[in-house]
């Protein structure tokens, strides 16, 4: 690779997915990019409900706190398998509806099915023989796990092609690529706000009175009602976006590095070069084996970044309920009530986090210019993340030292933490929206830009990037429970590991991550597209 142009004498093994790169196109209008990015609001609405309500929900179904993390293991596993697979086949999809749109539509449909299973897990379990008097409800847990697996598979089927579609619409315009991912991050924040607001409202089930049943209490009915709204939002946004933004059908004959003219390139000897698609697993191995240095460093920084993020994303509301509010979902009614109050306060914190996330997403370009580039911006916010995770220790210790009780009718009852402790915890949630906005946009934009520079297919490249996200999630999911139990339970040990990983990610972003190529002016980009074979 030299000056962004692929040499024609490169060996086939080094151009593992060049035949999947689409012909050069001018960037699409911003309104189309925004329309596709808006699907993220529907996707993230469901994720917000998972992050704020599902960990307490699985404990109410009878799964102990130590094992709750293993339920979340299905997400990383499905992401490790599904996103590269979907990315590979979406790069090659020859459907008359386009390359990405069929996968986005199928993913939205499966999300609707999975959410129904999760919401009605307790009811289906009860109808199948679960006892209402026993803590553990094995049949409900089985239905929940199946629904959760389908949900994660569907979300990965949906998000990967969405990101790749945005990269396709942005073409080789690096600024528009960053803007597209920033809008995707913004709409993720919109979905978060809607999801966390729904999760913090305790009477939502009254809109759907049929949601409350013998097996499904008020908490469960609220979750079920939130999922009804989530399905409606996702399907509406998906239908609108896919109806408005069309894709041209892709043909392998017209995209084998031909510069967009549909003609096969000729070798020096004058013979047409044949491109034989490699088998899927061979292509993945080749993709990993032949990664350029910028992509390898990006994967490493992203991996450490998600080792930092995932413990907090998994246990943030649980931390509010247990460590900050002093409640416990498996103890007496008084502690259970305080745990629920803490979870709702955590949902409010996530709502504030999402507001900051949304505003920061819209200002990513300005922030990057202010600090001297996207790699510096990513490094700075990783240090902010490390400080925030370390601050959870201070907030927890202050909350524990100020634990208050009251006596009513001869019984001792736990009181909420002081207002200063609650304010500090909520401020922590809000500040973490800044690094979260960068995490949701910059790595994906860099992957698309590096992919364009090397001539790789967007779907497969973003699928490979997803490996650096799901592998640390798998590690955290498996190790978080035993690691926390080793230090007496609670969530702080995993948060400490996250703080260390965030600091390491920041150091690597500053010292090793290459800066992306400079933006090409539009007049030069038009001239370049006629000569650059990888387009």
Automatic annotation (TrEMBL):
Segments for region (Disordered): 1-25, 249-276
Species this protein is from: Populus deltoides
Cross-referenced InterPro entries: MFS_trans_sf, Suc_symporter_pln
GO annotation, cellular component aspect: plasma membrane; vacuole
Highest taxon listed in the record's lineage: Eukaryota
Gene3D superfamilies xrefs: MFS general substrate transporter like domains
Bilayer-crossing regions: 33-55, 67-90, 102-120, 140-158, 179-201, 221-245, 297-315, 345-368, 380-399, 423-447, 459-480, 492-513
A GO MF term: sucrose:proton symporter activity
Chain intervals with Low complexity compositional bias: 11-23
Subcellular location: Membrane
Biochemical pathway: Glycan biosynthesis; sucrose metabolism
This protein's name: Sucrose transporter 1
Keyword terms, alphabetized: Membrane, Sugar transport, Symport, Transmembrane, Transmembrane helix, Transport
A Pfam family per the record: MFS_2
Source organism phylogeny: Eukaryota, Viridiplantae, Streptophyta, Embryophyta, Tracheophyta
């Amino acid at each position: 690779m030299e000056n962004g142009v692929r040499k024609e004498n490169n060996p086939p093994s080094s151009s593992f997915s060049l035949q999947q790169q689409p012909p050069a196109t001018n960037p699409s209008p911003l309104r189309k990019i925004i329309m596709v990015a808006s699907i993220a609001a529907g996707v993230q609405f469901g994720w917000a409900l998972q992050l704020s309500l599902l960990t307490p929900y699985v404990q109410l179904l009878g799964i102990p706190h130590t094992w709750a993390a293993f339920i979340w293991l299905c997400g990383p596993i499905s992401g490790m398998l599904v996103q590269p697979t979907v990315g590979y086949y979406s790069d090659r999809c020859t459907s008359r509806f386009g390359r990405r749109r069929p996968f986005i539509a199928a993913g939205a449909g499966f999300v609707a099915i999975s959410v129904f299973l999760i919401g009605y897990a307790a009811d289906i379990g009860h109808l199948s023989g679960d006892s209402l008097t026993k803590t553990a409800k094995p049949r409900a847990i089985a239905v929940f796990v199946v629904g959760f697996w389908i949900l994660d598979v569907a979300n990965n089927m949906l998000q990967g092609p969405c990101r790749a579609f945005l990269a396709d619409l942005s073409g080789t315009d690096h600024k528009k690529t960053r803007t597209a991912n920033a809008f995707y991050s913004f709409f993720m924040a919109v979905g978060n706000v809607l999801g966390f607001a729904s999760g913090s409202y305790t009477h939502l089930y009254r809109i759907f009175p049929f949601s409350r049943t013998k097996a499904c209490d008020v908490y469960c009915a609220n979750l079920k009602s939130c999922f009804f709204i989530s399905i409606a939002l996702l399907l509406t946004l998906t239908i609108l976006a896919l109806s408005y933004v069309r894709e041209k059908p892709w043909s392998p004959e017209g995209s084998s590095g031909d510069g967009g003219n549909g003609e096969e390139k000729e070798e020096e000897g004058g013979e047409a070069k044949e491109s034989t698609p490699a088998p899927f697993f061979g292509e993945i191995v080749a993709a990993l084996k032949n990664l350029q240095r910028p992509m390898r460093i990006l994967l490493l920084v992203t991996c450490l970044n998600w080792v930092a993020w995932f413990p907090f994303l998994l246990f943030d509301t649980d931390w509010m309920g247990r460590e900050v509010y002093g409640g416990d979902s498996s103890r007496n009614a008084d502690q259970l009530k305080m745990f629920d109050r803490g979870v709702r306060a955590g949902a409010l914190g996530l709502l504030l986090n999402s507001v900051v996330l949304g505003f920061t997403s819209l200002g990513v370009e300005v922030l990057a210019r202010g600090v001297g580039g996207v790699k510096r911006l990513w490094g700075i916010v990783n240090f902010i993340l490390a400080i925030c995770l370390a601050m959870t220790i201070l907030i927890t210790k202050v909350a524990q030292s100020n634990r208050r009780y009251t006596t009513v009718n001869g019984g001792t009852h736990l009181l909420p933490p002081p207002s200063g402790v609650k304010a500090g915890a909520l401020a922590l949630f809000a500040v973490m929206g800044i690094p979260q906005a960068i995490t949701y946009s910059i790595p994906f934009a860099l992957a698309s830009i590096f992919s364009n520079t090397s001539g790789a297919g967007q779907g497969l490249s973003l699928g490979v990037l997803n490996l650096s996200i799901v592998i640390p999630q798998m590690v955290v999911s498996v190790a978080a429970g035993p690691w926390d139990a080793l230090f007496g339970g609670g969530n702080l040990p995993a948060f400490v590991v996250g703080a260390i990983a965030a600091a390491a990610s920041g150091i690597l972003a500053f010292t090793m991550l290459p800066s992306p190529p400079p933006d090409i002016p539009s007049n030069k980009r038009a001239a370049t597209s006629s000569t650059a074979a990888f387009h």
